[in-house]
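Put briefly, the fold is written as integer tokens. One such record reads:
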Amino acid sequence: MNTVPVPGPVTARRRPWPRCRQCWGIALDLGSARTRAWTSGGRMIIDVPTVTFHGAGATYPVRRGAIVDTLGAARMLDRLLGHCLPRFGRPLVILATPVLGGMAYRTEARTAVEVLRPRTFLTVPTARAVAVAADADLSRPLLVVEIGAQLTEVTLLTDGAVTDARHTALGTGDLDRLTPPARVTEAVAAMVTAMLDQDRTSQTRDALRHGALLAGGGALRPDLAYRLTDRLHAPVQPVPAPHTAAVRGAATLLRAAHAHPAGR
């Protein structure tokens, strides 16, 4: 299990959750290859493979950005976080979801997360979570490219809301001798071109002119960022710690929800 620091306020040492146990919460990112979680009062992001064990072998409950084994996902979450749950009180859970996951994804995710006994279950599009983690200016159009292990998404945010999005079932886990990095950059370029062609406003063009945010594990590869900058003829900026940006953004929104009077 890998852990990485998460910025922001933390509670005093030796306190597993805040004094207000009703304010306890979990931020989640269920990726096809990695699952990442942050809990209230935690100092680190939990980062583990998206895998569970049942019977004789391992199973992979999330594939290409879709939950294909809801019970398996629930078992994984219980193994990962069940021991952290407070004895009293129920957590607020915020899950970063694929932008085009739709109702089907949210329904399966809600069922899987029930193992954590949530008081409230909220979802946030991954692209918005990434923008929040990067402290991006949401008052202007923003283009977010997330390259994961099995899924690549391109999303246009306007005033923080999703106004256009495309995805392809291709990611860094597919890259090998027969599938070069150019396949990913060409797929991203094709999605951006389609967005430009269908946008009757100037929002996509304005967002591209300011530059795209790059997140996901693919942003850790300098060759992909360089290729995308060259292919899109626009700056492409990897966000800090791009592989954990989605869960960090969800954690920021979780803290904001706890600070709001309605969330207490």
The chain has two domains: 2-128+244-263, 136-239. Residues 181-198 form the longest helix (18 residues).
